[in-house]
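Reopening this ticket.

The earlier resolution said the output was attached, but the attachment link was broken on my side. Pasting everything inline this time so it's all in one place.
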Amino acid sequence: MTIQVLTVCSGNICRSPMAEQLLRARLSDDDKLAFSSAGTVALSGAPMDERAAQLATEHGSVDAEQQIARELSLEMVRDADLILAMARDHRRAIVEALPRAVRKTFTIREFARIVSSLNVDELTLAMEQAGTDASARFEAAIQLAAGERGMFPSDEPSDDDVVDPYRRDDATYRTSTDQLIPAVNATAEFLGRVLKADSEH
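Inline output:
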C-alpha cells in the first residue's frame, strides 16, 4: 500500500508544489511514499510560478516544469495519510472541511519542529505496538506526533507559517524558501526514519 503525503497552500503554484517536489527528491528511493499537492484557492491548470520553480530546482527538484495547479478536494483530504499545510490558515481550512483530519494535518514547519523533538524509543514502541501493517505503523508514527503537538509550541504563532511569496519581490521568495527548506529536510529525515524502521521490522 502506498502512503499518501499531501502538501497544501493557497494557489498551488509556489509553496506546496515546492514542498511536494523537494520531499519527493529527498525520498526518491522509497516507493512506499507518494507525494502530491493542491491549493485551497488554486489557480487550477496553471504552471508553477517561475521564480518558485527556479528556487525549487536550485534545491533539488527535477520536475518543477511538470507541475500543474489543482484545487484541494475533500477526497484528497480523506485519502491522504499525512497533510502538510504551508500556513495555519490552510490547516484550518482543511480541518474545517473534515474535522477528523486534525490528527494527520500539520503545518510543515510545525510538523518539522515536533518530529525533530520526538523520542526515538517512543517512536519505535508506537510503531511496534501498531503491528506489522505498514500503513498502520505509519499512522502510529503520525499519531504520536499529533499527540505531542502541544508539547513543542512555537515562540511565535507565525513561526508555523511559510510566508507566501506570490507576486512579491525576490527577497520574499528567498525568505519563503529559507523557511521551507529546513522544514522539508526535517520532515524527509523523519519519514525516512519511519520507513527504514518499517522495512527492518
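Reporter confirms the inline version is readable. The radius of gyration is 16 Å. The first helix runs from residue 15 to 26.
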